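STRUCTURE REQUEST FORM
Protein name: Thiol:disulfide interchange protein DsbD
Source organism: Flavobacterium segetis
Requested output: C-alpha cells
Priority: standard
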Amino acid sequence: MKKLLFILIAFLAFATVNSQILDPAKWTSKIEKKSETNYVLVFDAVIENDWHLYSQFTPDGGPLPLEIAFKNQKGNFNLVGKAKESNTRTAFNDIFEVNETFFEKKAQIRQEIVITNLKLTEIKVDFNYQVCKEVCINVEKNFTFKVPVITAPNAISSTETANINPADSASVDTAEVNVNETKATQSAQKDVVVADSKPTEQRGLWSIFFIAFLSGFAALLTPCVFPMIPMTVSFFTKQSKTRAKGISNAIIYGVSIIFIYVVLGLLVTWIFGADALNALSTNVWFNIIFFIILVTFAASFLGAFEIMLPNSWANKVDSQADRGGIIGILFMALALAIVSFSCTGPIVGTLLVEAASKGGIAPVIGMFGFSLALALPFMLFAMFPGWLNSLPKSGGWLNTVKVVLGFLELALAFKFLSNADLVLQLHFLEREVFLAIWIAIFGTLAFYLFGKITLPHDSPITHISVGRLSFGLVVLAFTIYLIPGLWGAPLKVISGFPPPMTYSESPYGVGNSKGGSATTNQDLPEGAHLGPHDLVAFEDYDKGVAYAKSVNKPILLDFTGYACVNCRKMEDYVWSDPAVLKILKDEIVLISLYVDSKKELPKSEQYISKETGKEITSIGNKWSDFQITKFKANAQPYYIVLDTEGTMLSNKPESYNSNIDEYKAWLREGIDRFKKEN
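Status: completed
Returned output:
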C-alpha cells in the first residue's frame, strides 16, 4: 500500500498548530436515570474536522486506545458491560500495519452502572485518549457526575432520552452534569496514515468489491462450480418453452445467487454489528481460530479430505427446486451455494473477515462482488448459448485451480497467526520466520505448477500447458522477490502482510546487511545511543546539552514518540536524505525526547506540574510537560534548533514536513545563526 504524504502547511498554519496547546475534542456529559439504582453515564464529544479520536477497541500496536477509569467505583457502583460507543470507522495503518478504529467529527460513549451505595452523591471518571491529524496529542479529561436525587418522575427532552428504551422513559430523569475537565499532560504518541475522508472510504469499498469479484471468478473455476455452468444453462434452455423464457429464468437464477450471498453479508453485519466485527477482526483468539480454519480449508483444497455440508440440506433444498416459478429457481440457486460449499466456503469466509476489518457495509459489498462474478456466467451463457461450445472441457485443470487456491489459503492463514503474535508481542512469528514460511509455500507452489510435485486428486499430465507454465514463472519470480526480504529488503509489493521490519530478529535483516555501524557503543558519549540511521542521539536533555557544550555544536531538540507514525516517516524519508543526514551527523547534536516513555521516574524526581497540575510520574510525562511548559506545544513530531544555552536559533519550530529541501533549509538557518553567534 502506498503511504500517504501530507502537503506542506503554510507558515500561518504552522503557527496555529505548533504554538499553542491543542484540544480538538470538546466534551459534554450527562447522567440518565433508568431506575432507582440504574444510571447511564453519557459522554458526547464534538471533534474538529480531519481529527481522529481513537476508540477503546482500536488494537494494540497502533494509536493509543481510549481508556476509561472509574475512580470511585469500588464499593459504590458496578458497571453493566463495557462502555458502548457510537459509530466508528476502521482503516488500515500501513506504518504500524494494524487496523485502527476511530471516531470522526463526533463521538458518544455510554456506560450503564448499578448503584450499590445508596449514599453515593457523585461519580468520578477519567478519560485518557488520543487524537491525531498531521500530529497527535494524548489527552486526559476528568469528569464528575452528580448523582441526582429523584423524588418523582420528571419529563425529559427527546434528545436526553436518546438510545433509551421507550418502556423505561417514564422512570427516566436526566441531570446535566458539571464537567470538571482538567487538562493534563497532553503528549503526542502517534499519527494515522489511513485516509480519513469520504472519497478514501469509497476507495476502500471499491477495493473490497474488486477483490471479491476476482475471488468469485476464482471460485467459478473450481471443480464444484465450473461443471454446473453448462448443466444449469442447458436445463433452463431445454425446460423453457421459448428462448426468451429460458434467458429470463437464467437471469432470475443469477439474481437469486446474488440475493443469497448479499443476504449472507447483511446477516453477518446485522448479527455481529459493524463495530463488533471491527473489534473481532483484531481479536487475538479470533485470529488464532481463523488461522486454524484456513489451514483446515487449505488441507481440503490440497486433497487431504473433502469438507461438505450435510447431504440432507442439499436434498431438502433440491426437492423445493421442483416447485417451479421464481421460488423454485431461488431454491436452485440455494442448492448451488450448498453443493459448492467445499470450494466456495473458504473463499467466502476469508472475504467476510477481510470485509469485517473495513466495517460498515463492507461485508455486503464483498458478498455482492463475489456473487456477481459467480452469477454472470449463468446469465451470459443463457443469453448466448453458442458460447458454451467455447468453454474448456472439465478436467484436471479444475483441480489445479483448487490446489492453487489451497496454497493461497495456507499463505493467508499465516497472516492471521501473525496478527495474534504481533498483538501479544510473543515474537514467535517475526518477519524473517514469516517470510521463510511464505518462501516455502510459494516455492512449493511453483514446483507444483512445473509438474515436479503431484497431489492426491491430480490427473496424470504428459505436458505442461503454456498458461500453467506462465503462471508458474510468475509464482517463481514472486518467490525470488521475497528472498531479499530476509536481508532487510522492504518488499513494498506485500506491504501490510508480513510483520514490520522492526518486528524481526535483526532490524537490518538476516546477517545484518548494513555491515554494522561505523560507531560502536564504546565510541558513544555518555548518555548517548545509536538512533535512526546510526545517528548519535541523546534521550536525556541535560546530558545532551552538556555534550553539545563540550563539542560547541547547536542542538536539534526532537520531541518524538516510540510509536509516532509521522516521526518515523520523517526519519525514514527526510532524515535519510544524504544532505540532511550529513548535517545531522556532522553539524548538530540530536536530543530525542520520547513523550510516550512509560518508564517510571524515581520517587525523588516525581512532581506536580505547575503548568497542567498533573502528577508527573514517568519519563514520558516529564518530557511532555517540558514541551508544554517551555514551548507551549503538545504535538509531535516537533523540532527546535537551540544553542547550548537553550535559546531558539531558528525563526520557528518545525513539525511534520516531507519537503526535504525546506527541512534542510530550516536546519541550515539555525546552524548558520549559531556559527555567527559563536
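Reviewer notes: Residues 528-675 form a domain with the Glutaredoxin fold (CATH 3.40.30.10). The chain has four domains: 25-146, 206-391, 394-509, 528-675.
Form closed.
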